[in-house]
Design a protein that fits this description.
333 residues, Methylamine Dehydrogenase, Chain H, four-stranded antiparallel beta sheet, 1 helix, 28 strands, globular
């Protein structure tokens, strides 16, 4: 009876309005990382490696429109005001969003990984797992404003647009709060064992709530942006790598490498529930949300068998990527 109840509960979570409505196989060689939906310019940017470049698609049709070469990046952002794009590469590549032509390259320290554009003062934050953990760049002219020590390995970051930037710190199980005016760390919020190795972060700006998506344990932790008070924690899938809040539906999406998309509903500023678990595709841990159409776009690929490791070597996490299997999954209601 217990097993039957669990099965029914899992089925109930799987049932819901969201579904994978379309899969677009775009192919191409190289691994992929954090994508960006430019909802104003209607373009989708996807970093690819080996060779390093950023592939660019029409956000509405998902047809290719070009690429930014020589950018071995882990992410990209766009400043719609200046029309400048930036890649979390080393050096950082800055381009014109209309022509996709490179404007300049910017030397930075550390190992660029995550990236964030903050409209509060038109700055781009380049995050690194090694010091300096954050480098702030002026989005207008590409100059380095300063660097910052976050006390650990940063992952996804969000902004409230009012002078506060929040960053998952993966190895300390905390959320760092950056004062964008002074470029200093204003606070460190401890997740108190509710979640660890957090790799996704989303924010409800109106109600000032953070959603930290964590891997160990596999939980979505909700906390107040103002003081870090933990409100709740709910289970999600395995291997989360991104989270997004949708203010029009009051839902937070988290994408996991196990092929699940968890949807957490904010019933009220103090009440939350797992609304649906959507089966997507293994490796689909990165996503973007198109605020104009309401679509969620995930990137994924097929992988072959894990090769036998050399004597004394640790086994690989997955096998080689199957050529031309790279795809964009469209999730809609």
């Amino acid at each position: 009876m217990i097993l039957a109840f669990i099965g029914l509960a899992q089925q109930a979570l799987a049932d819901g309005p969201y579904k994978v409505s379309k899969t677009v196989k775009v192919g191409g060689v190289g691994t992929f990382d954090t994508a960006l939906a430019d909802t104003v310019g209607r373009r989708l940017y996807i970093p690819r490696k080996a060779p390093g470049r950023i592939t660019v698609f029409n956000l509405d049709t998902l047809e290719p429109v070009g690429e930014i070469p020589d950018a071995a990046a882990n992410g990209a952002v766009v400043d719609p005001k200046s029309g400048h794009g930036f890649a979390s590469s080393k050096p950082v590549v800055m381009w014109d969003t209309k022509t996709l032509k490179t404007i300049k390259t910017i030397d930075v320290q550390g190992g660029p990984d995550a990236i964030l554009y903050d409209p509060f003062n038109e700055r781009v934050y380049i995050f690194s797992h090694t010091a300096p953990h954050a480098t702030a760049i002026n989005a207008v002219d590409g100059t380095v404003v300063g660097t910052l020590d976050l006390g650990g390995m940063p992952e996804q970051a969000v902004t409230d647009g009012k002078g506060r930037v929040y960053v998952d710190i993966r190895d300390t199980n905390k959320v760092a709060v950056i004062d964008a005016k002074t470029l200093t760390v204003a606070a460190q919020y401890d997740l108190a064992g509710k979640g660890g190795r957090c790799s996704g972060l989303a924010i409800d700006v109106k109600n000032q709530i953070l959603f930290a998506a964590c891997r160990e344990p596999q939980m979505m932790v909700m906390l107040k942006a103002g003081d870090g008070k933990i409100l709740d924690a709910l289970p999600i899938g395995s291997g989360v790598d991104s989270a997004i809040f949708n203010p029009s539906t009051m839902e937070t999406y988290s994408a996991q490498v196990d092929g699940t998309l968890t949807i957490v509903k904010e019933v009220s500023p103090t009440s939350f529930k797992v609304e649906q678990t959507v089966q997507t595709k293994e490796s689909a841990k990165q996503m973007v949300w198109d605020s104009k159409t309401g679509r969620i776009l995930l990137v994924a690929a097929d992988y072959g068998p894990v090769p036998t490791p050399a004597p004394g070597a640790a086994p690989a996490a997955r096998g080689p990527m199957v050529p031309d299997s790279f795809s964009i999954l469209v999730v809609t209601k």
